[in-house]
Amino acid sequence: MIGGASYWVELFQDRQRLGGGFLLTPRYVLTALHCLRGLTSPDERVDIVLADGSRLAGQVCRQDKEADLALITVSAAFEVRLPIPRAGVAHGGDDWHGPYRPAAAEVHLRGQVDSGSAEYPCEGGAVIEALQLTTHQHLGDYSGYSGGPVVKGLPEDREPLIVGILLEQAPDRAESHRAANVLFAATIGEAMRRFDQFDVEHLIDVLRPAKPAPEQAVRHHVHCRVEERGESGTGLGAAAAVTDLLLDQIEKWTQRGVLDASQSSELKFLTAKTFIERQSPGGEA
């Protein structure tokens, strides 16, 4: 079991630093795909180094080249129990900061959100939902910060809220060899929509309490909650309880603005549909 206080990570291969990222869940690390450009295969193994120096084994499991995003899975041999902040939505005028920096001698970025939901044509070719950010630090080049989390609010705030992932910098129009103090980040909602690991079928599989001693922290958490409701952890009752948990989570995402009304309705419908299909004859129990 790995514990600690920080959720950002650094990615390495054979002692070579690739870039930054952060734990989106206890099992998945999100990063910018261009941070992995030195890898030779799409499912390459990497080392995930936590803020406290703990080293985990990981593997690239998904890439979205057009959106410049990549997902890395943490090896099942490790159980990560870090306090991962909730995902949320940023709005124009909000403060933001970045807890990740490429080296100890580098500054932490902080600034203001200019736009909380802009359509942005990223270098990979996709038009993504992005945050346009102004940073107070005029560095001229922010490339080492790619893949780091964008956190709403100030560093001293008690409950951080992850709202995006840093991807690109805007060039200075007067000096094209330098970057302006304007950055672009994919929203967390955009990142979650890009990977099927976060669709309804997968979430139900992850939440299903199938073992008395689950390997994943999130499964253990759900198993306990099912028992608190008086369910046995198997069969129809447990499946219904897991479905309720997922519906509750969808509602929380909707209230925080991560999902809009149409997305929320579609996810709730698919959740109910999946539950019904799995309980019908021939479905998965």
UniProtKB/TrEMBL annotation:
Pfam families: Trypsin_2. Signal peptide: none annotated. Gene3D superfamilies: Trypsin-like serine proteases. It comes from the Bacteria. This is Serine protease.
